């Protein structure tokens, strides 16, 4: 943290949610959260670039597609939950950044397979699946974030929906793996709705519940929600 941040950080109670602080503290907190989010997106893109240019992305995709693609869907959700939990429990900035790096790195590895599949579709059909999915996800994320921050509506009721929806989604994935069935288009559409609800809930939770010093865990929450949305938008657009 720079000296300018330190001078401000001494002025607030670290136990009080940022929403109850003065406007300058709220603005600084959200600015730093979204700066961390953008850096995480940049790191994700850099890792994907390395995986694709080195050929490792194709190797990972061939391995995954040779086993069970559905296992990656479950692994994606589990990794996000574990990394976010580690970020919240971390007591030092170093541990928080370590958990964030784990989240970004694991997501980059998990995304290798759907990105390779989307790239093959682009080469065959001359479409732009990846960039279209990315722009849809970013615009939807920005819109939902603005709603969550600026609206007076309380989205805490979504917590139970997200908890049980996540359990149901994992159960469907496990069932599909066991019985060899395919989770079709409607599953992807439902999960896009689930991801949208997660963005609303997580953004408002970050703003209303997190104290100003939990910048990194807050950014991790938002990164996981954005990644979940991108995952299922990409999966939906890649279905042929």
Task: Chart the SSEs and their pairings.
Elements: H1 3-9, H2 23-54, H3 56-66, H4 69-89, H5 93-125, H6 129-150, H7 158-179, H8 185-209, H9 215-238
Helix pairs in contact: 2-5, 2-9, 3-5, 4-5, 4-7, 4-9, 5-9, 6-8, 6-9, 7-8, 8-9
Percent range of helical residues = over 70%
Any low-confidence stretches, pLDDT <50, length ≥5? 1-13
Structure class: mainly alpha
Question: Which percent band covers the strand fraction?
Answer: under 5%
- The total domain count is 1
Largest pleated sheet: none
Gyration radius from CA atoms, angstroms:
19 Å
The pLDDT mean sits at 80
How many helical stretches?
9
Count every beta strand, where a strand is a DSSP E run of 2 or more residues.
Answer: 0
Can you describe what's shown?
The chain is an all-alpha fold and about 240 residues long. The chain has helices at about 5-10, 25-55, 55-65, 70-90, 95-125, 130-150, 160-180, 185-210, 215-240. The protein has one domain (about 20-240). The chain is globular, with a radius of gyration of 19 Å. The relative contact order is 0.16. Mean pLDDT is about 80; it is low at about 1-15.
Keywords:
9 helices; 0% strand; 240 residues; mainly alpha
